[in-house]
């Protein structure tokens, strides 16, 4: 049963769509640019893009955590634990840093994080995001 003011849709082949006024408007197909293409242009290339191709790039993800860990060991020699974890799913854009160090004793959390940010000032430039967790070793 159709709602008041609307005609029932009828078969799909009539190529019309209902309107609230009860008038029918002809169905207009999508422009050619929006329709999927058939043929060779629609199939993806079967060969991978070579590294030397324009627009290709290489990412050395494992180097970033190692570099950050090395810098943190140099800046916090009394640290009892340093852990740098890639939390971006492997692309190297976001890291989580856990540091337990005696240098953080008697410092507020914001000061501890500022110390870490200052130590990693160069490495942070290539990162999208960074989570910092600092703590003092239990006595």
Automatic annotation (TrEMBL):
Superkingdom, according to UniProt? Eukaryota
Organism equals Phasianus colchicus
Major location, coarse class? Answer: mitochondrion
**Similarity section:** Belongs to the BolA/IbaG family.
Please describe the quaternary structure of this protein.
Answer: Interacts with NFU1.
Q: What protein name does the entry list?
A: BolA-like protein 3
Alphabetically list the UniProt keywords: Mitochondrion
**Region Disordered: which residues?**
1-54
Q: What does this protein do?
A: Acts as a mitochondrial iron-sulfur (Fe-S) cluster assembly factor that facilitates (Fe-S) cluster insertion into a subset of mitochondrial proteins. Probably acts together with NFU1.
């Amino acid at each position: 049963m159709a709602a008041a003011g609307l005609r029932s849709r009828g078969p799909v082949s009539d190529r019309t769509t209902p309107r609230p006024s009860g008038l029918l408007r002809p169905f207009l197909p999508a422009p050619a640019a929006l329709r999927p293409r058939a043929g060779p242009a629609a199939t993806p290339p079967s060969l991978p893009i070579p590294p030397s191709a324009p627009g290709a790039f290489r990412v050395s993800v494992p180097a970033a955590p190692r570099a950050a860990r090395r810098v943190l060991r140099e800046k916090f020699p009394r640290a009892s634990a340093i852990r740098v974890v890639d939390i971006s799913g492997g692309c190297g854009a976001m890291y989580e840093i856990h540091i337990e160090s005696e240098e953080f004793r008697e410092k507020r959390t914001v000061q501890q994080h500022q110390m870490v940010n200052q130590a990693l000032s160069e490495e942070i430039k290539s990162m999208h995001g960074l989570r910092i967790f600092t703590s003092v070793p239990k006595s």
